[in-house]
Amino acid sequence: MPHDMTARLARRVKLKDAHIITRMADIAEGLTDVIKLGRGDPDLDTPPHIVAAGQQALADGATHYTHPLGIPALRQAIADNIRAHGGADYAPDNIVVTPGGQQAMFVIALGLLDPGDEILVPCPGYNPYHQAAELSEATVVNIRTTIETNFTLTAEMVRAHITPKSKILVLINPNNPTGTVTPPAEIARIAEVAREHDLIVISDEIYARLTYGNHTVQPVAALPGMFERTITLSGLSKAYAMTGWRVGYFAGPPSLIPALAEINHAFAISTAAVSQHAALAALSGPQDCVEEMRQTYDERRRVLCDGLASLGIPHADPQGAFYVYADVSVTGVPASIFCERLLRDARVLAYPGTIYGDYVDSYVRLSLTQPIARIKEAIARMRPLVAAIRAEHKPA
Ligand SMILES: Cc1ncc(COP(=O)(O)O)c(C=O)c1O
User: Fold this and answer.
1) Does 159 lie in the same domain as 96?
2) Burial of 161 from C-beta contacts in 10 A (0-12 / 13-18 / 19+)
3) Distance from residue 322's CA to the centre of ligand 1 (Å)
4) The whole model's pTM is what?
5) What pLDDT digit, counting tens, does each position of 122-134 carry?
6) How far is the CA of 310 from the centre of ligand 1 (A)?
7) To which H or E segment does residue 367 belong?
8) Residues 165, 20: one domain?
């Protein structure tokens, strides 16, 4: 038996959720025909013209480090893209291309947070923000949203959590895992609170191109007085189905970007050249692929929501992103137990909300990353399972 060195991990390392993922992986071992509604990784392929641009770039020798901030043409395309969608006017030198938006979170947190600083994060809200804060030895302050208001964050809620130690406010819009889009007027009110209390805002707008109905995303940095105190974080993974290429970025004011760029350089040197060329093709080429994918998720969203309603499972109304956040505790068991049963007995993979920054073990996040026929099949498999769990846990 090898010597257990767990106790030697740094105190700042907190391994909260590993056991759930490991347990689910153990259950999945040996199962076939699993319907995967777990990770936020589109089943749709990267559009062919983007793949072709990557292949061409390789043929042309894009096999080296690039400019540390990212290839200039890509940063220009990102700046143009942000502006075209009502965002701030960023100079290409104030944009840093990163290996996924994920790394950007850690670069920003390590660059801005001192031990003891407080970072306000919506809860539920994408969990790596917690991890980035914890590795920076900062204190995470969860702002809990609830299903009654479709998990909408409000300025009042933000204000109620502010202390003299508050330094950063994270906005995830649309939100992962809830799919909530914060209304533009509410974003403006939240921005006012940020200005009033001198907060830096990290505005994660990675799902901004994927919204449904008449929901739209107000880019935070474009609001009056917000450019100087906002870091916009985004990437190509979601809108262009490019998760595996690993291209994200952050953009901010000239007072912050050089220091953060230096940290990013220490982490990555630069983002993979081939991926940057593919990203350039994505942003500067035809955009109908984004709209097609958006419509695909929209249709899937309706099917999954209707299916859950037919099972009597309440869920958030997904206004953006590609997830449905469902309250499975109505069946009588916590979400973590439900997910294990779902995988073992129905061969449907989804993770509990606790993995996505929720501290209430009631919700499951179901990704819209399977074709409609598979989503219908998942609902059909859930029907007897939900009935069985309900029967087992019926009050005597
Ligand atoms: C809200 C949010 N931000 C950022 C990311 C990071 O994505 P990537 O690193 O692929 O750019 C994700 C991935 O799921 C996400 O859900």
Assistant:
1) yes
2) middle
3) 12
4) 0.96
5) 999 999 999 999 9
6) 31
7) strand 363-367
8) no
